Amino acid sequence: MKLRDIAGELYSIYNPKIAENWDNVELLLGDENCEIKKILVCLDITKEAVEKAVKENVNLIISHHPFIFSDLKRITSETVLGRKILKLIENKIAVYSIHTNADFAINGLNDFIMDKLNLNGKTEILDEADFYDYNYIKNENEKVKGGTARIKILDEEMELEDLISRIKKGLGIEYVRYVGENRKIRKIGLVTGGGSSFIQNVKEHIDVFLTGDLRYHEALDTREEGGILIDVGHYESEYLFADLMEIQLSRFFDGEIIKYFDSPVFKLG
């Protein structure tokens, strides 16, 4: 399957126009006319992920986090990023990234992670987007829907402690950090990754907010206000991106899909 055709399908599923303005998504490296027979999907394009792709003769890496964010003035072997880019080019491996557009899309990462918690109730979407956009690759006008935070309104209230247990089991993690006292909750907000910028917008709609990378003063202010925050961890809230992509890619790509899971950045001492 041509890389251009894969990009066209991904454009339909994860429209880049619902990504944050600061983001850097879509095809970041490669020839759109090349043939793709094997894809590696991962959270981050680490040195280990690149080595795995080379070893497995992968043609395309699809990552959640873009490995190119700022303007590059030079690509040399003097930097880690430069060495990774050079190695990818030398081995003719393309790179496509789907970041905040994967988070915000309908049936994207926010929905996927919320479903993993196995909670009964209806889901609402904050800052819902609903518009038509022209897919320049497929030459089609397409309906686009998405939104930022996901809010689960439970059929019945549950204890905060029970929700924490559900999170750890559903995401396969050993611990979370949280702020707030144990009490009954019903409305649960979620943004994967570092979603602290959404706290102010979502707090009036929920009892507890789940995200990663919470900072001290954000947590302190929320505690002072009597709110509840759960810091799942940035890696921990997004590493299942590989599982989501395997599901989506298998619907139109008949080549081999390799899921690569790196280890969390932080270790517990």
Automatic annotation (TrEMBL):
Entries under InterPro entries matching the protein:
DUF34/NIF3 (IPR002678), DUF34/NIF3_sf (IPR036069)
- Tell me which SUPFAM superfamilies the record gives: NIF3 (NGG1p interacting factor 3)-like
Q: Which NCBIfam families match?
A: YbgI_SA1388
> Per the record, a Pfam family?
DUF34_NIF3
Q: Please give the Gene Ontology molecular function terms for this protein.
A: metal ion binding
Write down the species: Pseudoleptotrichia goodfellowii F0264
Family affiliation: Belongs to the GTP cyclohydrolase I type 2/NIF3 family.
Gene Ontology cellular-component annotations: cytoplasm
Binding residues annotated for a divalent metal cation 1, in chain numbering: 65, 103, 234, 238
The residues that hold a divalent metal cation 2 are 64
User: Any idea which UniProt keywords this protein has?
Assistant: Metal-binding
Establish whether keyword Metal-binding is in the entry.
yes
Please list the coiled coil stretches: none
What is the protein's name according to its record? Answer: GTP cyclohydrolase 1 type 2 homolog
